[in-house]
Design goal:
By secondary structure, this protein is of the alpha+beta class. Helix content is about 30%, strand content about 25%. Helix 1 crosses helix 3 and helix 4 packs antiparallel against helix 6.
Length: about 240
């Protein structure tokens, strides 16, 4: 039985739109990287180099798709993924070199509830752990929240410690474990869930802006302040 509502109690209702806009298949430019909608003709050769190199097994360890056995096999994968609207795949391009260094996607896009997720991340060894990869994450998050979305998710195998550390570094809040949530590559998977909400993003965005500032890096590209340090004291940036 619910608690009684007194006559003098003011109930504030938040009105949401009937539908949020769908993410578009368009390039997204940053300072250190550019995200381009996946295109087999434009991205196939360089992406094959990234996903099939000496670290291919490690890079694919936690992904649902296997290491491509050949360029033709990757072409089949690229053709299917490039035609997909959800997940919506992007190639990650290092603007300093013009070289494709990975891929990622927006997935589980809900225009009815204003939520989306970054997933299918494969950042090659040349950008993993660098400002290029961090900005690749930031650009998609900022795009989604710029569309007015309420929630941005991160999910991973609960045993995937590097992915869980990345989620925490990026500012996600841990929400819990879905036990025996999926079967991936023939194995049962417990899934760790994380989220960033719309009201949290302005201060996160400010921290990213300060972390990605060239002044935050020395001549060798080493960070002067960590992202979590900047996030602890971040205030929203003034509107541009």
């Amino acid at each position: 039985m619910g608690l009684p509502v007194h006559a003098d109690t003011e109930v504030k209702m938040v009105r949401f739109p009937d539908q949020w806009p769908s993410p578009e298949r368009q390039p997204i430019d940053g300072r250190y990287c550019r995200l381009e909608p996946l295109d087999p003709a434009l991205h196939g050769d360089q992406l094959f180099e990234v996903v099939s190199g000496p670290e291919a097994e490690r890079l694919h360890c936690w992904l649902p798709d296997p290491v491509p056995a050949s360029r033709r096999e990757l072409d089949d994968w690229l053709t299917a993924k490039a035609a997909s609207a959800d997940p919506l795949y992007f190639a990650v391009i290092d603007t300093a070199t013009g070289h494709i260094e990975g891929r990622q996607s927006l997935m589980d896009i809900s225009t009815a509830h204003g939520s989306a997720e970054i997933g299918h991340i494969l950042w090659g060894p040349r950008i993993a752990g660098t400002r290029v990869a961090t900005e690749a994450f930031f650009l998609l998050a900022d795009y989604v929240f710029g569309l007015g979305y309420r929630r941005y998710q991160w999910r991973c195998n609960a045993r995937n410690a590097p992915s869980r550390r990345a989620a925490e570094r990026f500012g996600y809040t841990f929400e819990g474990i879905f036990r025996q949530h999926m079967v991936v590559k023939g194995e049962s998977r417990d899934t760790a869930w994380y989220s960033i909400l719309d009201h949290e993003w302005p201060s996160h965005r400010a921290a990213y802006g300060r972390w990605l500032d060239p002044a935050n890096f020395d001549g060798a590209g080493r960070q002067r302040k960590r992202l979590d340090e900047l996030r602890q004291n971040a205030l929203p940036l003034a509107p541009e």
